[in-house]
Specification:
With 68 residues, the protein is mainly beta. 7% of the residues lie in helices and 34% in strands. The chain has one helix at residues 3-7; strands at 28-31, 34-37, 44-47, 52-57, 63-67. The strands form two sheets. A three-stranded antiparallel β-sheet has the order 1-2-3, with no helix packed on it. The chain has a two-stranded antiparallel sheet with strand order 4-5. The protein is elongated and about 60 Å long.
Length: 68
Amino acid sequence: MNEQEAAREELDFTKPSFVFRPNEQHEWRQQGPYLVCKSCEIQHAVFVGMDKTMVGLDSEGKPIFKKR
């Protein structure tokens, strides 16, 4: 086996080593045009645009917006 063959890694994408499963309850914060959740295992975001401002959360934890 030469050096090039030893450096090659065989990947099996049918068996991922990590699967992202978000929490049921997100802690959303607005950062510019994005809603960002940092409470899950991986930080993730949703683009909401520049014309909306998050003003709070409803009783279910979903964001409430107002137009700018």
